[in-house]
Every structure is written in C-alpha cells, then in structure tokens.
C-alpha cells in the first residue's frame, strides 16, 4: 500500500517530535510504504522535516497555501487559517495529492500530521504539475523573432535527449536527428520552401491569398540551427513488437520524438518552427539522405525574443482553435452527451465559436469533382461509400444515415468557420436524403458560428 504523509509544523520543530508523531499515525494506518511527504510552501527547508523524509525514504513536496485552502477537510482549524491562510495543512496536503484520507489529523506540541492511501501511482505535486501543463500550453510554432545567439551545447544535448526518450513502437526508435548549420545547405532548402509557398499562394482565392501574404511560413535562414528528423521504417528488423498490424506506428513514433523535442526546447527557452512547405523527397535529395530513410520533420531552432501569448494563426485571424467538446464522443461516434450535434449548434451553446474570417466557399454536394476543382473557392463533398482519389478539394463524408449526414454537415461548417470561412454557398448537385441531411447540418453549423449561408 502506497501512503502519503501530510505534515504541518512550526519553525524549528525537532526531528524526534516529527518522527514520533508520524510513526504513531502510520501505525494507525496499518502500515504501508510512504511515497511522499507533503507540507506547505516554505517549510521544506526545515531540517527536522528533511530528516523525516530521509528516514521514510520518501520524496518531500510542497503545496501553495492557496491550493491547500481550497481543499475541504474533516478537521479544519480557525487558528491555522489565521496563521497560515488555510484551515488545514496536514489533511489538505494529503487530499491534494488525490489520496484517500485514512488517518485524520494528529497533533503534537509543534506539529500535525495526517496519512492518506494512494489508490494508484501518484501524480506530480500541484506546483510541478502546473509547470508541465504550462509547457504544453505555451509551446509555439515559432517563425518570427529569432535572435542571433548560439545554442549552448549542454542545452542542445538536453533537448535532444528528451526527444530520444520518446516512446516508440517496439522500442525501435526509428528516428535520427540531422543537425544543419551550413548556410549553403539551408539556402537550398529555403529555395524549395519559397517555391512551394508561391504555388500554395497561387491556389488560394484572392481574399485568402491577401491574408496569406502577411504570414511567415519558415525561419530557415533566421536560426543558427536546423534539424531534420528522419524515420527508418525498417529499423529493428522483421519482428518489431506492435508494428506488424499497423506500420504507420513507426512514423507516429518519429512524430512523438519531435513533440518531445519541441516541449523540451520550450522549457529551455528555445523556439522551434516546423517547416512543411516542401516536398520531402526534394529536401531529402538536398540533404543527401540514404534512400531507405524518410524525412518526417524539418525544424528551425534558436533563441527567440519572446514566446507569443497565442499561436500566430490565431493572432492573425487565419484560423481558430477547435473546442475540446467538439472532439469528444461517448462510446460511439456521434454520441456527444444529452443533446445531438444539431441541437447543440441550434442552441449556440458555449461550444459555439464565431467565424474568424470573410472567405467565401462554395460547397458542392455530389457531382464530378473535375468540373469544380479548377475553381479556388469550390469544395466538393462526396457522400458515397467509395473513397475518391485523394485531393484536398474533395471531402469524403460517407454518411450511412440522414442523421449522420446532419452530424457531418455541422462538423464541416464548424471546421470551415475555424479556417477563416465567413460565407457558405451550398449547391446540391445530386439530390438524396443524405444530401438533404448534409445541407441541413451545414446550415445549422454555419448559423451557430455566425457564417453567412445560402443554398
């Protein structure tokens, strides 16, 4: 049984007093292994408490007073609240870890303690947990504001070690990291990205192209270091555990390594930008990669002036974040809780978002895609069971029922709104119950997001 011991104490409390108090509480708990000792911020420097943690062979953690004060406890103390700003230290510290309180507060002359049982492996204490979530929330795809400052070798090593600790299918570790500092090589890669940027810009409708022109899509020449992350699909040989049924797990593994690198870099104050404006084979040729190795990511890495409060695409109005509620289904696809997606959209609930742009898109339901794909503002939706040839101008939404078609229509409208669409013009070329359902969903989704709709 894993235990947590909470301790409140006055400054200067002796080790002997703490040990006797805690030993009695642990005996009352029926025994177990103490994993963690928790107290309030500022008391971790008490010699008696440090010696107690060493005696128990446990980690010593602290919690802010504000977090402790929010924990309802069985035996609060007005005196402790007056002195410490929280009605409890020992009990609240235990409960804050997620443990079940098995021994309520016990007192000695200068200290209190409580004991909790952990139902499962413990998480980090609140202060450390907050740092993890902060790094996740503040990670940015950085393209602007790099400074001319080299990355220290020890910092780069820590970042790459974090990337190399990523989980991988069958522990195959299919990644390698090619560090590129040579300016001539980077200019060649930059030329490839520029050509693809121009091609993408030419494919956009005029209003969207104007918005795209102000975006910076890479910092290949602005950083002291580029990192090409590669994947060897055959690493580990024939019998890599877990890869045989889904070979894609090899590339997933390499992508996780990139995310580890990105988060570790953010924690070190290093900016990272992932460049995807080029054909991987062309970059592989510039880098002279072996034929059996594939490029997964090309990263621009360096110190930055600042990390923006929000992603650039959000700040510029190019796109908006998808609410978490839109991505959650319960037990089966489309089961989203007490209301249907159409009702949710019609009610314009807290899950609704407002369109972030003015782009006009014609949604063509059915018909031959070749007739429309030459028009930059056209998006063809195919509802049939057969998957069409891959093309980003064609959305395949194989609805099985009219109800599912409504769901898909709402989702399409919502997703387009997040990508800067402010006006939908719906043209149903092939009439059917499924097409009617999709059109109804498009209308509901557009209305909820403030997108103008006609059809």
Notes on the protein architecture:
The protein is an alpha/beta fold and 455 residues long. Helix content is 36%, strand content 20%. The chain has 15 helices and 14 strands. A 5-stranded mixed β-sheet has the order 3-2-1-5-4, sandwiched between helices. Strand 2 (33-40), helix 2 and strand 3 form a beta-alpha-beta unit. Helix 8 (183-202) runs antiparallel to helix 11 (280-287). The radius of gyration is 29 Å and the shape is globular.
**Average pLDDT figure:** 92
H/E element order: EHEHEHHHEEHHEHHEHEHEHHEEEHEHE
Question: Helical residue percent?
Answer: 25-40%
Beta-strand content bin? 15-25%
Outline the low-pLDDT stretches. Answer: none
Task: Report the total helices.
Answer: 15
Biggest sheet statistics: 5 strands, mixed
Counting DSSP E segments of at least 2 residues, the number of strands comes to 14
Instruction: Identify the strand order in the major beta sheet.
Output: 3-2-1-5-4
Which secondary-structure class do the elements indicate? alpha/beta
**Estimated radius of gyration:** 29 Å
